[in-house]
């Protein structure tokens, strides 16, 4: 029988970079329609800042195998809404995921297919368990990069379409210097 | 449909403890037959030191779900052989695992069912990918607790029996102050 070769790679705690990983960059221009304040979005688009970078080590899509990736989510806001990842369900909806916060400050917004939402604050050392079926998005509520490691089944897949179309039922904004989780005015069930 | 509830838990980087996790303690007396030097084992048994502690957060054994656990593996030797975990294959042999070293110094010994071995050194920041089918054991080669986080499919299961009976084909010992990976004199295929 042929076996895959084990390996060790280095994750740099300061930068979040995993050596030899596949890098993905999401700029503001990749996220049209994701933020509530469209005027603020268009204005910031002139700079088109990087919102987040992902360093992923992935296997073939096979049941029982595992992928892992770090995300470096930059600080900033579009209007009053904090910088965030696109968020996704898993294509195989019953796949779980585990996040481990390493640096910075933020949280995870989760949502069932029916739009029931949860907010879990994250700081270095927080491990978040994402159960099967929940969409999930991470949000930087601090003023430095928010860095975390995620592990997910190799056959989970990403369903971005549902969130792109409908968004989350909640948004996370700054109001009077506070982090506030409130209803998304554009949400329709 | 009923959904499981997402949650966040805190991992303490200094102690390796995960709050509200299930704690498991392995003392030397739980590891009879695992170390090569039986005389040194019997002698140290009078103290019966804790070899390692595990803090696990586990789900039901279900395909696509994920468990995680930290291990605090203490420094020490039985004769010249470094303190180590029991090591195991997965009951569902095609389940992968990912380890993430947080503190201390050590490594992972891996082995195929045919006894082909690998040694991967680990230090804080090292992520080790354990492919399907490989047995794996961690070893503390330093002089402080070696702490790491492991993530594994919820239906992986632990097959300890094969290693208990046959051991690994390699052992990791200290020779003249160096970490040496050498053939296990008791290994039989």
TrEMBL record, chains A, B:
MF-aspect GO terms: glucose-6-phosphate isomerase activity; iron ion binding
Enzyme Commission number: 5.3.1.9
Main localization (coarse): cytoplasm
GO cellular component: cytoplasm
Keyword Hydrolase: no
Keywords from the UniProt entry: Cytoplasm, Gluconeogenesis, Glycolysis, Iron, Isomerase, Metal-binding
Pathway field: Carbohydrate degradation; glycolysis; D-glyceraldehyde 3-phosphate and glycerone phosphate from D-glucose: step 2/4
Transmembrane segments: none
Record's subcellular location: Cytoplasm
Record carries keyword Isomerase: yes
Coiled-coil annotated spans: none
Gene Ontology process terms (BP): gluconeogenesis; glycolytic process
Limits of the Glucose-6-phosphate isomerase prokaryote domain: 25-183
Catalytic reactions on record: alpha-D-glucose 6-phosphate = beta-D-fructose 6-phosphate
Subunit structure: Homodimer.
Family listed: Belongs to the archaeal-type GPI family.
Name the UniProt record assigns to this protein: Glucose-6-phosphate isomerase
Source organism: Palaeococcus pacificus DY20341
Lineage: Archaea, Methanobacteriati, Methanobacteriota, Thermococci, Thermococcales
